[in-house]
């Protein structure tokens, strides 16, 4: 079965695709700003690390990787263009290594060893054979890759050296983790969708659409220079927000929501009632702030004794007994 012929060779630049990449980049910058605000204690907690934050991160990463698959087909669907492909791979791979080196220096306990750029570089190589396979086969392999983390288990896969696969039961500690499973599957899905729908895309409204408004032109520009913007935006955000944190100090409630959750969990593990534990957690947090004990880097023996007494009083008032959490 031959592939449907295109009216013209696949185009490497489509305004709609560039704008979509730019929109994904803007969403990523917003997510990173949220993470930075929490990291610098400018918000009560790090909302990027909450449930909705994790969902947003997955949606953003998935959109980027799907666009990678689409772009791979548009650039190489008529035959692999080795020079542009290798030049792009070198840029992305070099940027990924630079991010690893920089984060190892600044965050040695959680440096980025396989983030989104690492995944894009490796996935681009692994996707090359699928340029010649039917879209249905590519989509089926993509589905298997996405599903693999839910059913593939083996003791060998728990080795730290294989963390880049994403098949460990306990994820590694890192500030950005985009392993091959399941994320390579999103690249393949994008490639399969582009291969199946490229003729219609190029001839349809999306293929003909041109960025004319200011916002559309800005999004398209960002999409065309996504790697440079990706590399620059986070250091710039951190620098600006660090300056703000230096001037304002931490948010007065920074860390309080997490403290209340941890307190309530510990309280329940020692036999406390959930409702009483939640009340005691709120009471203790408020008491520590009132006594000037909140936000201290560490307690002196007298401060620790006073903090424990406040916790005991709150627990007894909330639960009606004397069992400390």
TrEMBL record:
Pfam family, one: HGSNAT_cat
Keywords per UniProt: Membrane, Transmembrane, Transmembrane helix
Listed transmembrane segments: 55-74, 86-106, 112-131, 136-157, 177-198, 227-247
Domain of life, per lineage: Bacteria
Residue ranges constituting the Heparan-alpha-glucosaminide N-acetyltransferase catalytic domain according to the UniProt record: 13-235
Entry-linked InterPro entries: HGSNAT_cat (IPR012429)
Name of the molecule in the record: Heparan-alpha-glucosaminide N-acetyltransferase catalytic domain-containing protein
Lineage, top ranks: Bacteria, Pseudomonadati, Pseudomonadota, Alphaproteobacteria, Hyphomicrobiales
